[in-house]
Amino acid sequence: MGAPVMKIETKDFNNLLIDAASTEMKIVGRSYSWTNGHVHSRIDRAIVNAKWIQEFPHVEVVALGPGYSDYCPLVVHLEATSITKRRPFKFFNVLAEHEQFQYVVLTAWNQPMKIIWYKIKADKQGLKHLNKQEFSSVECRARDAREKLSNIQAQMRSSSHLPRLFDEEKTAKLNLKKLILIEERIMRQKSRMN
Question: Is 73 a residue whose pLDDT tops 50?
């Protein structure tokens, strides 16, 4: 842990919490939210008032794993929602940068079809398949990659730092970074469409 915090340093903030009738939410998961590998510190808190606690008594703050950062984000899950409906195919620019993009398009256009509409439809089917294969559920894949990285890092903390764990961590970080960039680019394009 870092240097101990003196009571005088937090006196004003504690008084503010008392005056506002606020309290800290219960945190589940890690006991710290920042680390540099040697020092672990809890620098973040979720503050609520009595009305919040009455409205949402079951809600907790979850301290997530740091992933490839030194910071553990805090998340408040209010309600789990699941939407399972078919969505139309949307072309995202990240798809055009995939190594198989040109192959899919050329395959469709080299078919012995005379009407351009059929070629466009064939393009759509091929790109839809490529999109589903490479970019669908990127949020879930990124979440799984974060979990995998977190598990590797947990093993590194609890084991005798096997050399293979360093290689696995490096590979997991690269995979997570790739998925985060794809997710970010897709979200950016979606925000412009909306």
Answer: yes
